[in-house]
Amino acid sequence: MQPIQVHMFPCLSDNYGYLIHDAENDLTAAIDTPSAQAIEAGLSAKGWRLTHIFNTHHHADHAGGNLELKAATGCKIFGPRADARRIPGIDAEYGDGDTFMFGNHPVVVFDTPGHTTGHIVYYLPEDAVAFVGDTLFSLGCGRLFEGTPKQMWNSLQKLMRWPGDTVLYCAHEYTQANARFALTIEPGNPALVARSRAVDGLRARNEPTVPSTLELEKATNPFLRPSSPEIQKAVGCDGNDLVEVFARVRALKDQF
Ligand SMILES: [Zn+2]
Questions:
Q1: CA of 17 to the centre of ligand 1 (A)
Q2: Which domains does the chain have, with CATH numbers?
Q3: Alpha carbons 11 and 172: distance in angstroms, whole number
Q4: Using one digit for the tens of pLDDT, what is the confidence trace for 194-208?
Q5: Burial level of 28, CB count in 10 A (0-12/13-18/19+)?
Q6: Distance from the alpha carbon of residue 174 to the mean position of ligand 1, in angstroms
Q7: End-to-end distance of the chain based on CA atoms, in angstroms?
Q8: Residues flanking ion ligand 1, Cβ below 5 Å
């Protein structure tokens, strides 16, 4: 099996668009549809034909291009079962633990409520890649527009069980601002300090900080680190209730 090909490109103000391609079966999926125009440009740059859209959640910068792309290409739209009525043009609904084949590539779906009630992520275990939408960002996590801290912490813990070398593709370039916040609550984490410097260097050259790996996120992302004594001290909460630590980190970030 050839590895899945990933084509990544900036969209709108700070989104990333993704096309994934199975060359052996000539299949191409867009992960979310922030901009139909940008996705069509990406397709023609690669010479690929759109066969699928995999939506993570209903927000307009993720599903807003669905109908235009479906009308233009006849592609099939996959999305969260828990939020099917808010996904324009949905053809197939997926939820926690569902698996499907994208050509030769198994895809496992996880429900990750928190940012929205029906958010899902797509994990390709044999390719060691995952598309995590607005659930996990590089050094951050999605805002809790529809869910609770407990839901989001449960969702993040599902992702934390994947192998450390899993490559994480998130939907936004928020890393530099996330790093600034992370340093306010865990300045004594050398891995975070080093990563923050690396991120500043990449952004100074206008290069993406995405993707990252689960291993790197676990070492540096404050939203995956409520077990850190330094973070617990910074938010004024001991480690007996990791949901409460997570909730306080999220609340501080909201005000940052
Ligand atoms: Zn969103």
A1: 13
A2: 5-255 (3.60.15.10)
A3: 9
A4: 999 999 999 999 999
A5: buried
A6: 13
A7: 45
A8: 59, 134
Supply the DSSP string of 19-33, one letter for each residue.
EEEETTTTEEEEES-
| Residue 21 backbone dihedrals phi, psi, to 5 degrees | -135, 125
pLDDT (tens digit per residue) in 12-54: 999 999 999 999 999 999 999 999 999 999 999 999 999 999 9
Our answer to whether residue 62 is catalytic in this structure is yes
Task: Tell me if residue 57 is catalytic.
Answer: yes
- C-alpha to C-alpha distance for 125 and 214, rounded to whole angstroms: 13
Tell me how far the alpha carbon of residue 29 lies from the centroid of ligand 1, in angstroms.
19
